């Protein structure tokens, strides 16, 4: 394989879809992944852009707003709950609940929004349980307030990152898609995690369908990366993070070009040395490596080199983001192989016979060898 082949990418960095170009023109510079500081003017510009691009009509937008202004089932959800029925009785519950509903201001008690209002407990059921009480004891009318869906959700213990940004997950999935325009599903999921989303990956898989729909529009309104038929440069950041960019793309100061003109179907292999002097072997398809071509605002372009670990109820561990290897590791050596090859571990001094390493997971596997770390090399082999 020619490591220095300066092949021209099919998707240059200056190329933009019709929708993407219009959205970018409407947005401020350095917006990044956080939307909480946006002004009303910026939100209006984005909405107008979506309408002008044909993503929605003003009728669609107005109908959605009207629908979300409707306090649908605020009363019936309370009146149908077991706790309220038990406390007030079948004949009185709805009367008491609707009397409470009519006396409200019609705004979220926290953010003052009138959209997507829901009945929420002041003192949650989990607090009653923690006190050794029955959860149904939380269901009394003086313990209920109106909150919008967003403010309701971010109070839940399961949403530890909630409230860091303005949008609910449902809206943010589309905001990230249209505003930052991830080039791959992997990058889309990483952006969602950095934004603060904690739901299952399937929600992002479903939202990514919009990218496919728009990519097949006439003319195409979204660009999904063609990894199999495109070449990339791989960049090595000072903290050992590895990202990819378009061939010949500008590398930021302090960032080295690790490989040039690498086929998107190829595999990156590397060895790292841990603090305990244990060696780890990793393989990552180039298609798995995040791009560093996005504007992430105050975040480094290498911020996408992270992996998400979901919460574990059995061990009671919270979800977390950890560096994607080799980021923050001691990178010993790296090499590129084709999808048909595998790596062998070589001794650069030739004193110890090579050995086949087989295939490795993207997060790495520990290996044992008598070859000193400084003499370890990877060699593609069929």
Which helices and strands, and how do they pair?
Layout: H1 18-26, H2 40-52, H3 58-69, H4 74-79, H5 82-88, H6 93-103, E1 117-121, H7 125-130, E2 144-148, H8 149-153, H9 169-179, H10 185-195, H11 201-207, H12 209-215, E3 231-236, E4 242-246, E5 256-263, E6 267-273, E7 279-285, E8 306-309, E9 320-323, E10 330-337, E11 342-347, E12 355-358, E13 365-367, E14 376-381
Antiparallel strand pairs: 1-2, 3-4, 3-5, 6-7, 6-10, 7-13, 8-9, 11-12, 11-14
Helix pairs in contact: 1-2, 9-10
Would you write up a description of this structure?
It is a single chain. Helix content is 27%, strand content 20%. It is α+β, with helices and mostly antiparallel strands. The protein has three domains: 18-68 and 164-215, no CATH class; 74-153, no CATH class; 228-381, no CATH class. The chain has a four-stranded antiparallel sheet with strand order 10-6-7-13, with no helix packed on it. The chain has a three-stranded antiparallel sheet with strand order 4-3-5, with no helix packed on it. Strands 12-11-14 form a three-stranded antiparallel sheet, with no helix packed on it. Residues 1-18 and 20-29 have low confidence and may be disordered.
